[in-house]
Amino acid sequence: MEQRKWKGAGKMKIGVIGAGAIGLLYGGWLGKLHEVTLFPNTKAQAVELNEKGITVKDGASSFRTFVKADDTFSSLSSQDLVIVAVKQYDLPAVTTVLKNEDGGVPVLFLQNGMGHLVLLEELPQKTILVGTVEHGASRLDGTTVKHNGHGKTNIAVYRGKWDESVHLHTDAFPFTVQPDYELMLLRKCFANAVINPLTAVLKAKNGELVKNPHYARVFRAVFEELAALFPKLSREKMWEEVTGICKNTCENESSMLKDVKKGARTEIDAILGYMLETAARQNSQVPLASALYEMVKGMEDKG
Question: Quick one: signal sequence residues (predicted)?
């Protein structure tokens, strides 16, 4: 089937698979401009979303967006764009669905880490995009999300073609097209690998990694250990980036810390696991990263 084409400024039909914090955030914001359908994993949440829409709490203000919700995936093939907003460990179930869908509908994957790239090879979609999310969000209930911090969505073409004139966003919720998907994902994965496991183990907010001198020394040591694995990344620029994230989100808790607190499964395998696999391929020793990985996995087992 031919790939869909739209006018750049036209209203689109956008499907969002996953109705956690990121799915609700994107559904709420994109629903201001487009016709959005959410695909949650339970019928109960679908009923609630159809009745109440999505409420986005943004600082002292909030807004509500009415959306459609479909827990059966029956309307997936009628979308102009599908955004996959589930955690990486939930992707196998989603890709099973996508394998049976219209290959002409572009799909955008918004996962942390880089382990999901191998799954994308098996999909029939002609255009596949990958993205990184700079927003902070917390799901408060099945229809409400708190927008903890504003950023942007970086997207890049993994396969096929993407018309950069396609208007997805508002100024308050921007999308930026990047030229190199691998470098884009690696930068985000690296930052997450340095910040998230430490905050999870220390039970610390992001800003404490640079404010507390004892934490800061460990933070720098983990950074240097992982930076040695990726000579294509500029150490100076990446150090500015990871410390900048900590300062700009100083009062935020990382998603990994939130998962540990809830006793939920974390994305440690997708994030730090990728770094350990890279180290193993290079026969490099990364004792600090390895210790952090085992500690987070131990907290998962305890939960």
Answer: none
Flag residues of the chain having pLDDT under 50: 1-8
> What would the pLDDT profile of 27-67 be if each residue is shown by its tens digit?
999 999 899 999 999 999 999 999 999 999 998 999 999 99
The Cα–Cα gap between 44 and 25 comes to 19
- Residue type (1 letter), 28: G
Number of folded domains that form the chain: 2
Question: For residues 146 and 120, what is the distance between their CA atoms, to the nearest angstrom?
Answer: 30
Cα–chain center distance at 276: 20
Claim to verify: residue 204 and residue 138 sit in the same structural domain:
no
Q: Give the helix ranges, DSSP H, for the chain.
A: 21-30, 43-52, 91-98, 117-120, 181-202, 208-211, 213-227, 235-248, 255-262, 268-281, 287-302
Distance (Å, rounded) from C-alpha 241 to C-alpha 246? 9
Residue numbers of the domain that contains 193:
184-302
User: What is residue 7's predicted lDDT score, i.e. its pLDDT?
Assistant: 42
DSSP structure string for 3-24: PP---TTS--EEEEE--SHHHH
Last residue of a domain, one of 179, 212, 230: 179
Same domain, 174 and 261: no
* Both tokens assigned to 161: 């073609």
Contact 273, 293 (CB under 8 A): yes
Q: Among the options 68, 126, 188, 258, which is catalytic?
A: 188
- Residue 96 backbone zone (phi > 0: left; psi -120 to 50: alpha; other: beta): alpha
Q: How many residues does the chain have?
A: 303
The angle at the Cα of 71, spanning 65 to 75, to the nearest 5 degrees, equals 80
Which of 179, 202, 221 represents a domain boundary (last residue)?
Answer: 179
Active site residue 205: no
